[in-house]
Amino acid sequence: MKLKLNKQLFWDTNLRDIDERKHADFIIGRVLQYGDVSDFKKIKQHYRLPRVRLAAKRMSFLDVQSAFLWAHVLGLPILKNRVCTPTLSVTRLFKPS
Predict the structure, then answer these.
(1) Helical axes 37-47 vs 49-58, angle rounded to 10°
(2) Do residues 67 and 61 make contact, with C-beta atoms less than 8 angstroms apart?
(3) Total-model pTM
């Protein structure tokens, strides 16, 4: 991968195996979910804003705050329906006593 993003975003992936064109949604998604402002600026410059918007519309966010933030920043309708909800087993596992 030629994009100079924070390598910690891809801790579970071999960077040599990532194709910037084929895996654009994956790369953009990682930056939107875990990246910082510098990473966002790099993907915005590399992929252009329409492509980043498209990837954001397709992805599932881990939390409501991220969905609302990126909807606002990218000028999209509210992405609340794109938020992952924990499964019952996860909810039970982490439920405070």
Answers:
(1) 110
(2) yes
(3) 0.79
